[in-house]
Design a protein that fits this description.
mainly beta, Immunoglobulin-like, six-stranded mixed sheet, elongated
């Protein structure tokens, strides 16, 4: 699986200005859900906050863990940047982002969202290609529909719709034929799942590749 995402650290500019009275800190709402592809590749969580003392050091936490220390508030008392979403290896869960003025810890603000692992699997994993299986996935939030592209030897053989992604984290749970091709050739197939109606090797959003092996039938049974 892969995602075309640029991971950007929280980079903020410091300015010089006469101190002003700080207002109550306010953190802009987060997106409904963020994706965790793996430990090294996670979506950015935008941080847009205001109401801090100009020039003050601001600390950023996720679920109570310090992830960015000493961010300098701008002359207007704002901070702006991004941090990595937390890592999520399977399923989805809520998380909380908090920004706190270090010398005035009472001046703090929080917002919550969801993080989901990017995933697609078939259940059962091994069966006859004409049988219906469950397609179970999460993280397909790049469009209003999810598609499965069937490839063999690098060539597109069929594209099917897996329906509309459900919920804020783009969940997929549908039943379809494992391989919707009549008499599929024996050997290795690749199912690429993404939000693009037309197959492309590098879609604009995320995609997941699921290998499928078609085995030869021997005397009424499939070979191991």
């Amino acid at each position: 699986m892969h995602a075309r995402r640029t991971l950007i650290g929280l980079v903020l500019l410091a300015g010089l200005a006469a101190p002003q009275a700080a207002q109550a800190a306010v953190l802009a709402p987060l997106a409904p859900c963020y994706r965790s592809v793996n430990e090294a590749s996670r979506e950015n969580v935008g941080v847009q906050a205001s109401g801090f003392t100009p020039g003050a050091d601001i600390d950023v936490y996720i679920d109570g863990v310090l992830i960015q220390a000493g961010v300098r508030a701008l002359p207007d008392g704002t901070v702006s940047g991004s941090v990595d979403a937390p890592y999520q290896g399977f399923g989805q869960r809520p998380f909380t982002l908090t920004v706190t003025e270090r010398e005035t810890p009472g001046n703090t603000a929080s917002a919550t969202s969801l993080v989901t692992a990017l995933d697609m699997r078939l259940k059962p994993r091994r069966t006859a290609p004409h049988r219906r299986v469950r397609f179970l996935g999460r993280g397909f939030t790049d469009g209003e529909e999810v598609f499965g592209h069937y490839l063999r030897r690098g060539k597109l053989r069929r594209t099917v719709s897996l329906g509309a992604p459900q919920g804020p984290c783009g969940r997929v749970d549908v039943r379809r034929r494992q391989i919707p091709v009549r008499n599929p050739h024996v050997g290795r197939w690749i199912l690429q799942v993404d939000n693009e109606p037309e197959y492309t090797r590098d879609p604009l959003g995320v995609s997941v590749e699921v290998p499928i092996t078609v085995r030869r039938v021997v005397r009424g049974k499939r070979s191991p």
